[in-house]
């Protein structure tokens, strides 16, 4: 018997080659944010060592590092703890009040006409203008310091809450009402997520101002804290102590802002924005 011939289709696509993709090695990212400070420190060290800058006015970075090491064994942890606790307490008080009052102003026209003009006027008062009055009313204990820090944190958070709620798309609110959401559910499921970017920006700015107002409070009346170190360095003409306190303030402010930035990135990861496109 003759073997039967099998008719194969003419246009049969060639089998595709399988390309195995090996996992890419993680690229090392250079810390470009450290480049400018390092260059400034090197230039300052060389300028002081070369006699271009008087060391009594601007100590070398190596001398500031030695001062920080000396302070670490002479009460620096207590100063750091006092300043951090004051900022945490004042920021919590100011931000909490700002969240409540900001939401009331943004959602109620009558409340806005009642409170917003006063808040806008108080927002223009400098921090140092509050210090004598708070000292007169509350003395030199912790109360005036916490109140001053709370004042500094209040207004950025208040502005963020008001602008965030007012900026919510009206169509989103109408859709929520079509689904017959209760006012509390509408605020929780529609208003809060839509206003969250502005709210987190306000919290971030409020935390930065809380550090600034803390220094103003401790410069006037304090026996511990980084502001006290600044004042002590000024009275003893120790520029190295003042610069060491400034370096610590910059580091603490940067660490706290980085933490708030990480929280902001995590809470807003659902947005299809330019900042999130690299993570998709």
Shape: globular
Order of helices and strands: HHHHHHHHHH
Main beta sheet strand tally, sense and closure: none
Point out poorly predicted stretches: none
> Termini separation (Å)?
64 Å
Report mean pLDDT, rounded to a whole number: 84
Count of individual beta strands? 0
Which structural class best describes the helix and strand composition? mainly alpha
Could you tell me the strand content as a percent range?
under 5%
Give the helix tally: 10
In angstroms, what is the radius of gyration?
29 Å
Task: Give the fraction of residues assigned to helices.
Answer: over 70%
How does this model look, in words?
Residues 80-260 form the ABC transmembrane type-1 domain. It comes from Massilia haematophila. The protein is globular. Helices cover 70% and strands 0% of the residues. It has ten helices and no strands. It has helices spanning 35-49, 61-72, 76-107, 109-123, 127-138, 142-166, 170-178, 183-220, 226-235, 239-267. It starts with 34 loop residues before the first helix and ends in a 13-residue tail after the last helix. With 280 residues, the chain is an all-alpha fold. The mean pLDDT is 84.
Q: What is this structure's SSE topology?
A:
Blueprint: H1 35-49, H2 61-72, H3 76-107, H4 109-123, H5 127-138, H6 142-166, H7 170-178, H8 183-220, H9 226-235, H10 239-267
Give a brief rundown of this model.
With 280 residues, the chain is an all-alpha fold.
Keywords:
single chain, 10 helices, mainly alpha, globular, 280 residues
């Amino acid at each position: 018997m003759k073997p039967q011939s099998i008719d194969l289709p003419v246009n049969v696509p060639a089998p595709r080659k399988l390309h195995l993709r090996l996992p890419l090695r993680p690229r090392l990212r250079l810390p470009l944010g450290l480049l400018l400070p390092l260059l400034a420190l090197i230039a300052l060290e060389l300028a002081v060592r070369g006699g271009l800058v008087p060391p009594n006015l601007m100590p070398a970075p190596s001398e500031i590092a030695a001062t920080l090491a000396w302070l670490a064994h002479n009460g620096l942890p207590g100063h750091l703890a006092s300043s951090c606790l004051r900022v945490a307490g004042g920021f919590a008080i100011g931000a909490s009040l700002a969240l409540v009052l900001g939401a009331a102003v943004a959602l109620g026209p009558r409340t806005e006409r009642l409170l917003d003009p006063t808040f806008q006027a108080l927002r223009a008062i400098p921090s140092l203008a509050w210090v004598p009055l708070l000292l007169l009313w509350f003395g030199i204990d912790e109360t005036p310091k916490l109140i001053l820090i709370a004042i500094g944190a209040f207004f950025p958070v208040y502005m963020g809450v008001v602008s965030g709620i007012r900026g919510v798309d009206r169509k989103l609110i109408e859709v929520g009402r079509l689904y017959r959401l209760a006012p509390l559910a509408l605020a929780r499921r529609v208003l809060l997520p839509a206003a969250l970017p502005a709210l987190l920006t306000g919290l971030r700015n409020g935390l930065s101002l809380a550090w600034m107002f803390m220094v103003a409070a401790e410069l006037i009346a304090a026996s511990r804290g980084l502001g006290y170190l600044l004042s002590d360095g000024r009275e003893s003409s120790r520029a190295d102590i003042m610069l060491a306190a400034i370096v610590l303030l910059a580091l603490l402010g940067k660490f706290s802002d980085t933490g708030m930035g990480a929280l902001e990135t995590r809470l807003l990861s659902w947005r299809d924005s330019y900042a999130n496109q690299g993570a998709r």
